[in-house]
Design a protein that fits this description.
The chain is built from 5 helices and 2 strands. The protein is mainly α and 93 residues long.
């Protein structure tokens, strides 16, 4: 996939609507950052500045952390642990 090029018009991003629409369609700030060659925080700024509600990031519970640590000590791969605990895996996976 070719990254999008960011365009500025009078110092403003002219592509805000595309970024907001992609986020509302389910794309994460991290994925949009990769596509637009921007930091995740920059994407989140564009979304907040456009009035978009930022989805909360998933966090593991204490039990989930303990389970992941035990699985890792038992030589389970981080990829498999992440998938089981609801992670998306590496980009493109």
């Amino acid at each position: 996939m070719t990254p999008h090029q960011l365009h500025r018009v009078d110092g403003e991003l002219s592509d805000r609507t595309e970024i907001v629409a992609a986020n509302e369609a389910g794309s994460s700030a991290e994925k949009l950052g990769n596509e637009w060659q921007l930091a995740k925080d920059s994407i989140r700024y564009v979304l907040r500045d456009s009035g978009t509600t930022i989805r909360p990031q998933r966090r593991l519970t204490s039990d989930g952390i303990d389970h992941a640590a035990t699985s890792y000590r038992n030589r389970e791969s981080l990829h498999r642990i992440g998938k089981r605990l609801g992670g998306r895996g590496p980009p493109g996976s």
